[in-house]
Amino acid sequence: MEFVFELARTNKYDSEIMMRDYYKAVFGEEGNSRFICTVVKDGQTVECYISSSSKLSKYLPLANCNVLISKNERRDLRTRYTLEAVECANVLYYVNFNKVNKLYENYLLFDEAEDRKIYKEYSVSNIIKTDFYIENHGCIEIKALLSKTNRVVFPDNSSHRLERQLLKYIELLKRNIHVSFCFIAMSDSINEFELNAKKENIGDYFSKAISLGMKIKAYSVTYEHDSFKLIGNLTLENNILKAVSA
Question: Taking 60 as the threshold, does the pLDDT of residue 114 lie above it?
Answer without folding.
Answer: no
